[in-house]
Amino acid sequence: MRFQKRHIALLVYIVFLLLPIYWLFNMSIKTNTEILGAMTLFPDNPTLANYATILTDPAWYSGYINSMIYVGINVVISLLVALPAAYAFSRYNFTGDKHLFFWLLTNRMAPPAVFLLPFFQLYSSVGLFDTHIAVALAHCLFNVPLAVWILEGFMSGIPKEIDETAYIDGYSFPRFFTTIFIPLIRSGIGVTAFFCFMFSWVELLLARTLTSVNAKPIVATMTRTVSASGLDWGVLAAAGVLTIVPGALVIWFVRNYIAKGFAMGRV
Amino acid sequence: MNKITNNKAWFLVLPVFFIVAISAIIPLMTVVNYSVQDIFDPQTRFFVGTDWFRQVLEDSRLHDALIRQIVYTGSVLFIEVPLGIGIALTLPRKGWGVSACMVLLALPLLIPWNVVGTIWQIFGRADIGLGGYTLNLLGMDYNYSQNPMDAWVTVLVMDIWHWTSLIVLLCYAGLRSIPDAYYQAAKIDGASNWAVFRFIQLPKMQSVLVIGVLLRFMDSFMIYTEPFVLTGGGPGTATTFLSQFLVTVAVGQFDLGPAAAFSLIYFLIILLVCWVFYTVVMNAGKREEQ
Amino acid sequence: MTWMAWTPITAVFFTCIFLTLIGMGIWQAISPTIPRRGFLPLETTRGDRLFISLLGAAYIHLGFMVVSDASIWIASIIALVWLFLVMRWG
Fold first, then answer.
1. Which of B78, B105, B96, B111 is nearest to B169 (CA)?
2. What is the pLDDT of residues A170-224, one digit of tens each?
3. Residues B38, B45: contact at Cβ < 8 Å?
4. Contact A165, A139 (CB under 8 A)
5. How do the domains of chain B map onto residue ranges?
6. B235: cis peptide before it, omega within 30°?
7. How many CA atoms lie within 13 A of B257 on its CB side?
8. Over the range B82-110, which residues count as b (16 or more CB within 10 Å of their CB) and which as e?
9. What pLDDT digit, counting tens, does each position of B263-281 carry?
């Protein structure tokens, strides 16, 4: 009996999670007349017209491309700089290490709104405004500390004897790091990339402020549609569904690591 | 783990240091500079000392936003943490259900924040949304774009929908680290469910829970995107939280000085809370090692 | 650098902070700190005490501005006393 009750609670919660997502999907395959005309649980005439609009209109699909580009750049930068730093934090004591670590964390916690104005001025003054690299660098503010934090957790789980044996065997640090150590923490790197991807993908405020036309991300395109016309619900819903897809794919690939990643990665 | 003291490790940290310094220290210095001046353009600016700070500290809109923020963050923690623990306890421990639940639970976390807003906008509207339509059908006069209370509750429910999964996943990760032997021992002793929870499960979840509470506190304290899309801070100022208020002042009215002064106060609050949590976590970690 | 809108007083402020950090680094290199318990309810190193005193100083200034309209330098003096107290006995 106890099992029954437990599972009912879980089921109710999952329905609560999925219902709004279902509704978004439902809207995305309806025509606008049906959306505004009647309340239907299932679409009467399912249509893919909304998706077709997005995939053929450059104003829409360039948003996805822009987002993908800066998210990609950001993940690469974050991982490249965070790997050696996380190694240093997990293996050595050095002057000011704890304070440095704390300072990095505060940047993960700081509200992006605080940095909004200076960022705008900074990137305008060096001529990077409205470029992908500007958004990627701005997102490093919270993704690099996050990557260091997660990777440090994974690296601390690798016994130090492995390093010592490798050094005795005559490995130099770069060779040891790239050929032995990195393969050992593969799953950690995967989890880190996942979270960097996620936070860069979902962020709106900085991405919107630092771009105008050439690097305009999909999230900004969507909010513009809301405020400007506010009418084309079907296309908006379809755009929403398409932004969920990359995340859902990533989750599917890492599903077995999620719980572990959350615990070890201390996200 | 015993670590070697080696200051050469600084070389490994330098890239991170520089990249974060560019994105954090230079902007922060700029904010400090802005906060003590009245700026018309880069050439025309006047030193005003602490005037902006005094103005901001006395601004009743800020006080209101701060109170709203604290009530909101408090409600978020008060609902999401117990709910998250509860859901984590109901999750199956093995079998095919585990992966399925993980995927379904993690889904809301990966939806872009503005799309979360859009989803609830579509879901909550009384004319085209399932949620709003049903509530009205049940006789409630629900309209989140007109009624401040409805708007506030909708933003809260949206946050619960969005982020409770994070607490669930963290707690579940903690629960999985409990060996089966503990449960068997408890069964032999005839321990009640409550005793099992209180003395076995809760202590194991403690460290991840602190992290969960910290993250939920921080993220709800700087919430911007979701209410911006859903309600735009309205109706009136019912859902104008601190970040929203800051962005309005900084970008909307382009009042650099007050916005900068406000940013610094905001940042100091975050810094203090972050430090307290960090110290607690680290000290708890040290005690565990001993 | 014009967009950063430097003024003499903030420049001096940041130079002081910067020099303090370098000074702390050198001090650490000459005689490493030993964590200890003072009147603060936790074990602290020198760096921790510096951080606590600086954060405290910021809050002292804010608090002073809320309760009083008098010159901010009074708050600065209080903050300096606080800084000394924490660094010496914290």
1. B105
2. 888 888 888 888 888 887 888 788 888 888 888 888 888 888 878 888 877 777 6
3. yes
4. no
5. 60-255+262-289
6. yes
7. 19
8. eebbbbbbbbeeeeeebeebbebbbbbbb
9. 888 889 889 988 888 888 7
Based on the fold, state whether residues C24 and C55 are members of the same structural domain: no
Query: Distance between CA B112 and CA B228 in Å, rounded?
Result: 13
| Overall domain count for chain C | 2
Residue of A nearest to C50 (CA): A99
Closest residue in C to A126 (Cα–Cα): C1
Domain that holds residue C6: 1-32
Establish, for the pair of chains B and C, how many residue pairs have beta carbons separated by less than 8 Å: 51
* C58 and C86 within one domain: yes
* C-beta atoms of B101 and A233 within 8 A: no
Could you confirm whether domain B60-255+262-289 is CATH 1.10.3720.10? yes
The domain segmentation of chain A, as residue ranges, is 1-47, 62-265
Q: Please tell me whether residues C24 and C47 are part of one structural domain.
A: no
Q: Distance, in angstroms, between B264 CA and closest chain A CA?
A: 8
Contact assignment for B30 to C9 by CB distance below 8 Å: no
- Say if C54 is an interface residue toward chain A (CB within 8 Å): no
Cα dihedral B263, B268, B270, B271 sign: positive
Same domain, C74 and C52: yes
Rg of chain C, C-alpha, whole Å: 15
> Touching check for C67 and chain B: CB below 8 Å?
no
Q: Does position A153 have pLDDT exceeding 50, yes or no?
A: yes
Architecture of the A62-265 domain: Orthogonal Bundle (1.10)
Note the pLDDT tens digit of each residue in A74-128. 999 999 999 999 999 988 888 888 888 888 888 888 888 888 888 888 888 888 8
User: Do residues A187 and A257 touch, judged by C-beta distance below 8 A?
Assistant: yes
Give yes or no: residues C20 and C58 share one domain. Answer: no
Let me know whether C76 and C53 are in one domain: yes
